[in-house]
């Protein structure tokens, strides 16, 4: 299985949308746990890395390049 590459500041799409309706999340902290912030309502959630990697669909915008990764 291919490992998903993501970094601090990336905008990612999750498998399930946030209750506010947005499915874009920004990575704002990385470590054993990953803190993601909803780009729609600015609510942030701390998620264990394993659960985050399982529930992340794809990186929409990378912080380094500033472009789409499609």
UniProtKB/TrEMBL annotation:
Descriptive protein name: DUF951 domain-containing protein
Organism of this sequence: Paenibacillus albidus
